[in-house]
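Today's session is about reading a structure prediction critically. Students often jump straight to the picture, but the first step is always the sequence itself: look for stretches that repeat, for charged clusters, for runs of hydrophobic residues. Only then move on to the predicted structure, which in these notes is written as discrete structure tokens rather than atom positions. Here is the chain we will use throughout the hour.
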Amino acid sequence: MKNHKWNRIVLKVGSALIAPERKGCSSRYLLHIAKFILQCRDMGIEVILVSSGSVAAGAHFFGNIEKPSLPIKKAMAAAGQNEMMAAWDRFFDFPSAQILLTHGDFQDRERYDSVRETIFALLEHGILPVVNENDVVTTDALKVGDNDNLSAMVAAAADADALIICSDIDGLYNKNPHTHDDAVMIKNVNTIDQSIYDMAGGAHSSVGTGGMQTKIEAAEKATSHGLTTYIINGFKESSFEQLILGNNPGTVFAPYAKPMEEDLHWMTHTSRAQGEVVIGDGFEYPLDENSDQLTSNEIVEVLGEFSAGDTILIRSDDGKHLAKAEANYSSCLLNFISDHDNNDDDNEFLHQTGPLVSDKNIAVLDQEDK
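Below is the predicted structure for this chain, in token form.
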């Protein structure tokens, strides 16, 4: 494959490609995607498929429900998942394996490592991993919410070289191409900043949930881990033909020259904060180098409920997001500390508590609270 040095890629395919009319799975667009997967494997490139579509594939079993309830959506996902896997299987003469995940599988480090091990074992034995969010059991607290971000998390966990995200347009445009005839596609993005997010529009597909905004979020997650990331038009066979030739058919996002370390990336882009610790504006130490200076004396407020070892957000009293870190103490204990810091006996106890967060698991953010 010219210009590519891929050993392993993650390909994300959305609901609109799987079941474009919500009448079960269709081979209309899947055929050329399957051909691309076969060509990659023939070239020695390992492929992990992140496939949406279980709800859209199962919708036809439940009649013409315009606004299905959450239990019905979960039932649609349960029924549609089999159809979706069967649709992919019929294109291949090698086995595939279903992996259903929630954000909880990424949040818990032991489960995260288990997911990695499973993916590596499947690839080692020539089996195609097909990943989807587990819509049947997931809750608001546990769901990723869109498969764009899920694909980036999977790509990082799997140590992939590239992430390819299929869209319903050719790539990222400087303005909405559905409403502006003079919209220009951005072929190359070297840095994802606010100007890039400003270009991202909402979802236009009637069956998908991820718009361009989530694709940019996914690209930021992936590129910071060192992955080249593409947004391409998955409805066009030519997009995949160009990729095979080593060309860029859409928008390519350059990976970080110095990718984040694994633990830092997981803390920044995968682990969710279970609560917040608000500290005084006067704390001036760089947190990544001086986390031991962050003690109970700096606490202004403790928000949410969390346990020792959970990820928390540290923000200043003026609203700046300073860092995500592993808490050394529970919210219950920190609330007790902050409520009793004027008592002499308590002060002796506070002195013994030490820093609030682990110095080995901290990710500096320095972002405005929006």
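Discussion point for the tutorial: Confidence is low (pLDDT under 50) at residues 202-210.
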